[in-house]
Design a protein that fits this description.
Elements: H1 3-38, E1 47-52, E2 57-60, E3 66-73, E4 79-84, E5 87-92, E6 96-99, E7 105-114, E8 120-123, E9 127-132
Length: 139
Amino acid sequence: MDNQNATCLESTTVSFAAVFNFHKLAICVLLCLCILFSQPALSAPPTIQLLTPADESTIRNTQGQVHISWVTHSALNVVYEIYLDDVLKKTTTHTAMALTGVERGAHSIYLLVKDENGKVIALSPTHTIFVHQNSKLFR
């Protein structure tokens, strides 16, 4: 083979190798992008907010009923635990509930949100409420 054909063959081989390496790199990048975008998106942490009763509110109810409602931004399959004075009072899957038998005085209310495995995923701020009732002498 003469020098001119050998030089042409070498430059073709180098060009083919460079194109082949570029395609390998492009395929790797595409695979990484596919894996990255096929993963579930990271979501914001769940939150819960008590709507009623408002913090520091006064409730006048002779039967001791306290209606609680809240809004949450969390997963679908969750359970809410309602605590009154750090004691679990009710568990529900709804976003509203009435507690009964709440005695007069100051009380704290907060909620826990648990996922289907029982793991706490959110905690509401604590609200203080004041329950006013007629004296038992006047009921």
